[in-house]
Amino acid sequence: MIKNIAAYLKELLKLLSVISAHSKDDKVIKVERTVRDFICQMRLMLIGCMKCTKKKKLPPVSYEYYRKIFDTRFNIVIGYPRSDTCSSCDKYQADVTVLQYTLSGPSLPHKEKHKLEMPTRTAQMANKVHKHKAEVFYERKRTARQRSMKNESHEAITFYFQKNLPMPKLTTNCVYYRRQLSLYSFDIHTSPRGHSVFYCYPETEGRKGSVEVTSFLHHFIFNLPNPKVKVIELFYDVCAEQNKNYTVLRFLYYDLHAARRLDHIKLTFPVCGHSHLECDRSMVLINQKYPAELPEHWVKVFETARTKPSPCHVVNVDQALLRNWTQYLTSL
Ligand SMILES: [Zn+2]
């Protein structure tokens, strides 16, 4: 049965590769789907395939089964929809649901309905603007990626602190009640080459603040794989404690005008709740259930997590790498 379904899906995939549309002057233009549209379409298609199977009275096949076929036979990995959603979008959805429920009431006078239509339209417009602003971030990231592909003096990077990994990871029940040592990891991801550099250290070495972020950026910028890079575009989350603060901004200014390693730095911040960065994808590949007992064990897991486009590079952070940039830059 799996063979037939796989063949059926293969035919559907052929239709999805390129779509054709007629412009006003009847010239056929080809529109390539963006990756995001494609993935959305794939998810819909999986659901469509399930309905089709049911309609043709074929044996029922689960969503997971279809997904497995896509992942194993077509080399197309379809992720799950994100579980963490934007609080602004959630509030909009809740407000609109309440307004629509009130409007659908049969006993509501016409004048009251008319009054409620305006807040609904206002909320819809505000959410549309919010989503448009969020999309600008991704559009700029895509453009920076394409620019880096064409010009080797350009580089686009994203960075963020990843999830804390506990040690020792034991199965015995008393571990649940004990204080465990955490391993911190800070990922810097370059685009489009896809290099991932993890700065790993146990919590005894340092904290997760602006000094650490600045130290890692300094190490990364002065040890870039390609020394020809002179223009860097940074895309990172607006966490004031770690990323968007005076220390980091002063360091970037210092890098441009005092150290003169780079000629141009461009910063782009996402809209809160819509900051899906490439560095988060690298963390997904880490086996977080690995029974690590020492920091070295986690380092090994990071180094062997992936092979394409290149294995993750791990920097073992020590006290020498972490410098008090806040104090130094304030004195300048
Ligand atoms: Zn949102």
Can you put this structure into words, describing what you see?
There is one protein chain. The protein has helices spanning 2-16, 35-55, 63-73, 87-103, 110-150, 210-221, 246-259, 278-284, 295-303, 325-331; strands spanning 19-22, 28-31, 154-161, 165-167, 181-191, 196-202, 231-236, 264-268, 313-316. The protein is an alpha/beta fold. It has three domains: 2-73, no CATH class; 88-133; 151-331, Nucleotidyltransferase, domain 5. The strands form two sheets. Strands 3, 4, 5, 6, 7, 8 and 9 form a seven-stranded mixed beta sheet that branches. Helix 6 (210-221) packs parallel to helix 7 (246-259). The termini are far apart. Mean pLDDT is 82; it is low at 17-34.
Outline of the structure:
With 332 residues, this protein is of the alpha/beta class. The chain contains ten helices and nine strands. The strands form two sheets. Strands 3, 4, 5, 6, 7, 8 and 9 form a seven-stranded mixed beta sheet that branches.
Backbone structural class: alpha/beta
- Distinct ligands: zinc ion
Provide the domain count.
Answer: 3
User: How many beta strands in the DSSP annotation?
Assistant: 9
Q: How far apart are the termini?
A: 71 Å
CATH class of the largest domain: Alpha Beta
Q: Beta-strand level of the residues, as a percent range?
A: 15-25%
The share of residues in helices is: 40-55%
Give the overall shape, derived from the CA principal axes. globular
> What is the correct CATH architecture of the largest domain?
2-Layer Sandwich
Strand count, sense and barrel status of the largest sheet are: 7 strands, mixed
Radius of gyration: 25 Å
**Tally of individual helices:** 10
- Helix-strand sequence: HEEHHHHEEEEHEHEHHEH
